[in-house]
Specification:
This protein has 1 helix and 5 strands; from the N terminus they run αβββββ. It is α+β, with helices and mostly antiparallel strands. The chain has 2 domains: about 55 residues; about 80 residues, OB fold (Dihydrolipoamide Acetyltransferase, E2P) (Beta Barrel). It is elongated, with a radius of gyration of 28 Å. About 5% of the residues have low confidence.
């Protein structure tokens, strides 16, 4: 008689597990996606904090432009510059002044880059085209659409 009670209880337990396990699994996968989304938001917030806290400016000559990898390499010619080549990641929110985009830059152009460092990579915040390279056409484009900037 005891054997029947245990077998009925066991069958009921298995039925409950089978009925509720999809909900548990779904809840776990939703929780994992929620955790991943939260981690991505935290990383974006960390990157924004790095941009604000570690903003730096560098002037130099463009060595290479890689539009496929969204990067530009610049020879440091600024004050205190040691002549090193620095690589910058260009993000969709990177702003350009005079040049319209990364594709408008070419080897030999003189640029000023405002950047921040995040996770060991230099990320360009603003790229200003100061002067076209000597071997290029200097009539780059009209500057009618460049607004005046007030400087302290």
């Amino acid at each position: 008689m005891k054997r029947k009670k245990y077998s009925v209880a066991f069958v009921c337990f298995i039925a409950v597990v089978l009925v509720f396990s999809p909900a548990l699994v779904h809840g776990q996968s939703w929780s994992a996606r929620e955790d991943e989304t939260a981690a991505n938001r935290e990383m974006a917030a960390d990157e924004e904090d790095a941009r604000v806290e570690m903003g730096t400016t560098m002037s130099g000559k463009v060595i290479t432009v890689n539009a496929l990898m969204d990067s530009v390499s610049v020879l440091d010619l600024g004050d205190g510059g040691n002549g090193s080549v620095e690589n910058f990641l260009v993000k969709p929110r990177t702003s350009f002044i005079v040049a319209g985009s990364l594709k408008d830059l070419s080897q030999g152009d003189l640029v000023q880059i405002d950047f921040y460092t995040f996770k060991g990579r230099k990320v360009a915040d603003t790229i200003i085209l100061k002067q076209r390279g000597a071997n290029q056409n200097t009539s780059f484009r009209k500057m009618d659409n460049v607004s005046k900037v007030l400087v302290d």
